[in-house]
């Protein structure tokens, strides 16, 4: 049995949010979730969720062909650099901006992106949708990579941050208010619970307690995207979990989830977040901060 749920029996437009706590029992339903058996690192498996601490290049080949309904993913943007605004901007430290996200961003290449996109195409069912967030200035190579893999109907999605971080407002009046994703479809008839949509989603940058990753996306944004592009019980996949936003949003919208994260500390945070384990989340956050402080000290 594929990982896919009973999406097509369900009428379009019935994707209303529902919070469904995951069962604590770590058992797998028959199907693709069982493919986790060969995983090497730490992993969390329930009947609705399989997440693993490993690279997408070892994880994705274990996901059966055509077993996923929606890929919603946010790979490294390959943009880490020094901004010169790391500690203070316009005299205010709260406006400090760092574009050096760390090794996880520097180590990823555009060839890695192409490789993962070919795997997304393989694991998606015909008619499945793929949404890839990426650097605004690199959309042309992203679109080309999607089309080379076989995807059709590339369209743009924008996230407008309703509380953007001011950059250097003395030099430029424009804030950094926009992030973009390319949406593409694997042939067939895709699921979309919307009509005449401009593809613009407005949400604030999330600053709450369960923020751990430097580029963590707002859960509200990912919940909205999941509800528009899939049905309850469908399978959502994210191979670059970061702080686990896609897994969390899939759980809260009643979807199944499969995904991985290479970094052990972000993986731990994601797993604790999916389980609603606040102590685990806070321990992982502390470990992330300590590791960052050690790296900074070593670099000084
Ligand atoms: C842009 S972040 C994802 C942020 C996420 N959307 C969130 O809301 O927290 C990308 C993540 O991909 C992870 N990553 C980088 N290379 C990877 C790989 N080969 N396999 C799996 N994860 C990888 C990084 O460690 C990083 O946490």
UniProtKB/TrEMBL annotation:
Keywords in UniProt for this one? Methyltransferase, Transferase
Write out the transmembrane intervals: none
Q: DNA methylase N-4/N-6 domain location, by residue?
A: 68-268
Q: Which reaction does it catalyse?
A: a 2'-deoxyadenosine in DNA + S-adenosyl-L-methionine = an N(6)-methyl-2'-deoxyadenosine in DNA + S-adenosyl-L-homocysteine + H(+)
Q: Does the keyword Manganese apply?
A: no
Gene3D superfamilies xref list: Vaccinia Virus protein VP39 (3.40.50.150)
* Documented EC number(s): 2.1.1.-
Give the start-end ranges of region Disordered: 1-21
InterPro entries named in the record? DNA_methylase_N4/N6, DNA_methylase_N6_adenine_CS, RM_Methyltransferase, SAM-dependent_MTases_sf
**Top EC class of this enzyme:** transferase
One Pfam family hit: N6_N4_Mtase
Domain of life, per the record?
Bacteria
The family annotation for this protein states: Belongs to the N(4)/N(6)-methyltransferase family.
Q: What is this protein called?
A: Methyltransferase
The organism encoding this protein is: Rhodovibrio sodomensis
Query: Lineage in the entry?
Result: Bacteria, Pseudomonadati, Pseudomonadota, Alphaproteobacteria, Rhodospirillales
């Amino acid at each position: 049995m594929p990982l896919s749920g009973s999406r097509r029996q369900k009428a379009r437009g019935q994707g209303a949010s529902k919070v469904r706590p995951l069962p604590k029992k770590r058992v797998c339903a028959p199907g693709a979730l069982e493919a986790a058996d060969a995983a090497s690192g730490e992993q969390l498996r329930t009947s609705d969720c399989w997440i693993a601490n490993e690279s997408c290049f070892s994880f994705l080949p274990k996901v059966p062909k055509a077993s996923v309904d929606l890929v919603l993913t946010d790979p490294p943007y390959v943009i880490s650099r020094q901004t010169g605004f790391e500690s203070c901007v316009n005299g205010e430290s709260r406006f400090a901006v760092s574009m050096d996200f760390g090794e996880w961003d520097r180590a990823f290449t555009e060839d890695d992106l192409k490789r993962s996109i070919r795997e997304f195409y393989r694991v998606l069912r015909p008619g499945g949708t793929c949404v890839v967030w990426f650097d605004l200035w690199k959309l042309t190579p992203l679109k080309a990579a999607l089309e080379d893999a076989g995807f059709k109907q590339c369209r743009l999605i924008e996230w407008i941050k309703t509380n953007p971080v001011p950059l250097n407002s003395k030099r430029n009046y424009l804030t950094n208010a926009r992030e973009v994703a390319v949406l593409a479809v694997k042939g067939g008839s895709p699921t979309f619970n919307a009509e005449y949509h401009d593809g613009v989603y407005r949400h604030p940058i999330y600053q709450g307690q369960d923020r751990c990753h430097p580029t963590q996306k707002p859960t509200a944004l990912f919940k909205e995207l999941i509800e528009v592009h899939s049905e309850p019980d469908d399978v959502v996949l994210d191979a670059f979990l970061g702080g686990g936003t896609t897994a969390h949003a899939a759980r809260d919208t009643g979807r199944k989830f499969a995904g991985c994260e290479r970094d052990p500390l972000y993986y731990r945070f994601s797993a604790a977040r999916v389980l609603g384990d606040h102590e685990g989340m806070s321990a992982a956050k502390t470990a992330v901060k300590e590791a960052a402080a050690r790296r900074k000290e070593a670099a000084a």
